[in-house]
Amino acid sequence: MNLKNRIILEDYRKQRDAFVKLGDVVHNMLTDIVDEMGITVLGIEHRVKTEKSLAGKLERSGDWYSSFEDLTDILGARVICFFSDEIDKIGKKVEEAFVIDWENSSDKRALIKADTFGYLSLHYICSLPFGDIWPDEICGKKFEIQIRTTLQHTWAAINHDLGYKSEFGVPRSVAREFSRIAGLLEIADDEFVRVRNDMKAYTEEIRKKIIENRADDVHIDMISLNEYVKRNGKMQELISKIAKISNAEISEIDPESYIIQLKFLGKETLGDLQKMLEENRELALKLAERALANADLDILSSSVGLRFLCRAEILNKHYSLEKTTEFLKLSMGTTEKAERQAKHLLRTYEKIKEECE
Q: Is residue 201 part of a domain?
């Protein structure tokens, strides 16, 4: 190793601890950015280049670097998001939060030639400004931030593992395969965005129908059932009355697990569910009073209305012990436990009828 590179390595040893501190600050700042944006990401990671890795880079680069300050990737941070349109959104916030070295930053996605294989991410060379916020020892030091999707991350990891970092020197047949795979991954990224947007649009449509009482023909699925429980006035009234029995708070949960139970009861649409609610509301409340009056529960799930409505439906439709056991097994697992609960439910129903006579 030549003298210049040995000096660079010595400077690295002196400044490594500062880069470790800088890495923690950058990681926390990136976490705050995605949290404030309300974006869920696969992960945020960072690393400080090891001395061995730096020495290898210097050997390969020859006289490319004149000093330690020429290196911009001693610290590297990465945000891995799920959707490709989140890359630019996060990137804009990164531009606001850090000092950007525009000369060395690049949107590597735009550098891919039409006839070249590749699948690259958005890269920034950044630093923290000097001032009163951070210690001077970590300010002004350049580091890299990459923003990429999970598929881009997978592509990069496989490329790194195979040792193919560019198309140069790669056998023609392999380059062609890489191009095909990159194209498929890019299409997949676009399709994930489209599916997400379609689900958002569907959710908004169902929500509007429920609020306007036009949802009778809507098929029960994870989105429509969730929106029904949240938005339907009569369902919310039932949930509120059940919660008052034990003065409990309601915790919002996804009611998706009740789809199979409703299907067992023959409920296919929100209209079916609404009719079930209207027919069984009073009995559902009586069952809830029996179960919760002396229970020391501070929190009930938002699906509690569905729980007692389903049981009231079984009782009002005079399901046999065997059929009731079969239904309860859907959520309880074992036949033995489901049968015990079925017998208890049927006994409770008999007591309620006696009290009403």
A: no
Task: Determine the Cα–Cα distance for residues 152 and 178; give it in Å rounded to an integer.
Answer: 13
Q: Which of 196, 200, 107, 219 has its CA nearest to residue 152?
A: 107
Domain count, the chain: 2
What contacts 281, CB < 8 A, 6 or more positions away? 234, 238, 309, 312
Rounded to whole angstroms, the Cα distance separating 346 from 241 reads 23
> Do residues 41 and 149 make contact, with C-beta atoms less than 8 angstroms apart?
no
Q: Residues 230, 161: one domain? A: no
Closest CA to 287 of 237, 340, 346: 346
Neighbour-count burial of 206, counting CB atoms closer than 10 A to its CB (0-12 exposed, 13-18 middle, 19+ buried) = buried
141 and 10 within one domain: yes
Residue 169 DSSP class? T
- Domain for residue 299, yes or no? yes
pLDDT digits (tens, 9 = 90+) for 233-288: 999 999 999 999 988 999 999 999 999 999 999 999 999 999 999 999 999 999 99
Give the residue ranges of the chain where pLDDT is below 70.
Answer: 1, 106-120, 163-170, 357
CATH no. for residue 143? 3.30.460.10
Q: How many CB atoms lie within 10 A of CB 233?
A: 10
CA–CA separation, 255 and 59 (whole Å): 59
For residue 281, what are its two tokens?
A: 């509301």
For the stretch 143-180, what's the b/e string if a residue is b when 16 or more beta carbons lie within 10 angstroms of its beta carbon?
bbbbbbbbbbbebbeebeeeebeebeebeeeebeebbe
Q: Are residues 229 and 339 in the same domain?
A: yes
Condensed to tens digits (0 to 9), the pLDDT of residues 91-118 reads: 999 999 999 998 888 665 554 444 444 5
User: In terms of residues, how long is the chain?
Assistant: 357
Cβ atoms of residues 238 and 277 within 8 Å: yes
Instruction: Please enumerate in sequence order all residues whose Cβ is within 8 A of that of 170, keeping only pairs 6 or more positions apart, or say none.
Output: 117, 164, 178
Q: Which contacts of 168-176 are long-range, i.e. CB under 8 A and separated by 24 or more positions?
A: 170/117, 175/117, 176/117
Closest residue by Cα to residue 99 from 45, 148, 141, 44: 141
